[in-house]
Amino acid sequence: MPDRKYDCGYIMAYIQDNDFRNYGWLKEASLQCKKLVLGIPDNEVAGSITGCAASYDAARIKEYWLNFKWIEDVIILDANQIYQHSLPIGYAIDVCFFGSDYGMRYRHDVETLSSQGIQCVALCQEGIKRIEGIDTLDLVLSHSPNTGKIVLFGTGKYFDYYMRNYGKEYPPAYAIDNNHDKWNTTKGGVKILSPEIIKTEKADDILVIICSKNCQDMIDQIHSYDEYDYRTLIRNEEMSILEEYPLLQLEADATHRILEKIHEINYDMLEEFDSLCRRHNIEYFLNYGSVLGAVRHKGFIPWDNDIDTVIKRDEYEKLMQYRNEISELYFWLDSDCLGKKKYFDCVPRLGYRFAHVKEDEDFCNYYNNLYSGIHLDMFFIDKTRDNLWGRLQRFELAVLYGLMNAYRHPKFFDDYDKKMQRRNKILCSIGRYISLPWLKRRADKIARRFNDDPKAEYYFISNDALHKLTLLFPKEVFDHAVDMPFGKVNAKVSCNAEKMCRIIFGDYMQLPPKEQRVPHFGRRLLRADLFEFSENTEH
Questions:
Q1: Which residue, 363, 304, 370, is CA-closest to 332?
Q2: Which of the four, 212, 349, 430, 533, has the lowest number of CB atoms within 10 Å?
Q3: How many CB atoms lie within 10 A of CB 61?
């Protein structure tokens, strides 16, 4: 056996049991130490990295790699162990292998480990090597707090690689190069400047991408200016993806803080709305995720981020008589606020003035920036029947809402399947020739069709998405409202709130799979940088 340089080495990597490409670099590491300990992510971490944990089984992967005698042990790591880059307990580690030079955190980790007498050895490839399903740099660019301004250092073939693979989604502010002949020229639409220019940048505002194979001198150069964060294009993806995992955790922590702020704003808005309704004896009910949150969590579902209510039409009309009594923190949004040529939906809302979502600019302009924020939604309940005439009523409404799509922004239809796209195209081609106000009046009339019919035994939510029109609630569900704690607010819910939840959600006490317990804003995942808050002295 050859002399080993180290006694016990440690590698942390995301690997599979059926990919023999990992054998080479793992074996290379084992030849440098008498014992090699491998740390792999647990199923939850793997799922958060790739977005799908279906093909990953940590227990099976551990069993597979333990078959190789040159691997001493395989340890399954949870999120905290990876986040802290914890060393395995029970082993006297004297070398840690790394898959990339991951910027300032790498420098700090090396300094910490070195102070403990632990060497740090990189196992990077000779050149750029992308692996299907794993892209560490994309993770960095989409989650790093420093990606407000990206600077490329080097303008050769690695620069070309970056621009080809990342430049469209993450365009650099400019590039720097030590070749003064390139200064003040452009390449691929990117201006090339002297490296000295970054001295004018705040270290927390930029991320430098080292676009060169031989990058150590460039890293030393930028750090002679200041502690600028950076990344290199050469890396071992299986290892570097876990080295960058703290970015996901930092993003999750920041998102959680934003979500808590949104919850607080929503609680205050609901409290204002509830107070107005109580002053004037107006009945409303919590709806959808809000009633489920009240019943199951006594407040917000932890990953929910808006307030849903439901109200009878005559109660809503009564509410509108007192709309001027609402605090100036909020504004009313009715379905006619966009005029006769634009349509969002038929749900009136109460909006918060001091928060906006960074939506697509064209989408925001189309809707006058009214619908990109924090809202309390008010859905209408009308009477219906569970027979042919009731089904006809709901079918007519579905058609009318489809015709109104002709006045919607095209972004609404991005996630329609092919069948829905075809139907929508047909309805929109007809709807554009029909007046939007007429379509709304007609929908309103049809929704009220059975409201005075004593034989109409059900309520339905008449101004929501098409698939929600099929939800039928027995009349007793909305016989009267009762108080129920919702966070700090004593809100109104159905006297049969559990039955309401059962109709909407089925087994409502069963939590969804963990990977689905994530906050969304509409169809977008909620991220820390999604909301923009403006000045408000009360929050």
A1: 370
A2: 430
A3: 22
